[in-house]
Amino acid sequence: MSAEIITQLPARRSSLSEFLDGARRAIPVVVASSPFAVLFGALAIDNGLTPFDALFMSMTVFGGASQMVGIELFGHKIAPWLIVLSIFAVNFRHVLYSAAIGRHFAHWPLWQQALAYFLLTDPQFAEAESRAQRERVPFAWYFGMGLCIYVFWNMATLAGALFGRLIPDPHAIGLDFLLPIYFLGIVMGFRKRPMWLPLVLVSGVASMIAYKFVGSPWHVSLGALAGIILALIVPPSSQKA
Amino acid sequence: MNETIWIIIASAIATYFTRVGGHLVLSRFETIHPRIEAALNAVPAAVLTTLVAPSLLSAGPREMIAIVVAGLVALRGGIMTMFITGALVLILLRNFT
Question: What is the ipTM of this complex?
Fold first, then answer.
């Protein structure tokens, strides 16, 4: 697949082939995230939601970790505004994503930008960032990836909500540790960037400290902030790969 | 509509706000200082690392082996290869050791 991309790079590709290439980029994401969508659907039913509620949440919020936190809170008697605030807190990292990626959407029509931000998940951001490093990001490619992830996320949610009782022990199939492995792969994909190792060390240690002393989900924003401040204070001229 | 649906709608709006908010703030500025640019380029590694690191605190030997193997595979292979290798190592270790 990579050889094919290299030979086609100089010529501008059609929207359809960009769309299909984007959809191909979604395959690993679908493989890694589907177990969580199924688990989300199953847990949503356990916590008193209907299959429609679960699907509606996947379709509108479209953010795995925050949806998990949300249904966990639905199961208890918790004030509605506190549930919304918790979901906002878990998703707060997207503020940083949209700040970083917005530069590369600026040449698209407004409706495409509005749609692109709706589809801005962790892997979508990572793929778009690495492509933006080399060239302009075509909307068809971005949308192909985003739509594919979106459709499978919702289908897997519905499957979990309807047939969730059939899933095996989540611990035995490693479900609690699949996402860290997947995100490690994404982090490794950026290892050629300036300051990568110092950034990873500082953000990693800071997030562990924040996890222990402040708690989840704030460790994400606090840990990321530590790394971003490092990039901010080191003079740009000395930030070499 | 029941309360659950309203909570989901409010959550969806709050989430969309986070997905567009950083851009809305930054687009108010005409030019971006090189240091801000460097900070924005740091976002992928900085944020995505925080989704991995804290899980190491609760990791036992099996999880550590899986994550080290996956990390090494990532040096040579694509994300799909590394993910499936890491997942297989973890599942095998958890079920057979």
Answer: 0.91
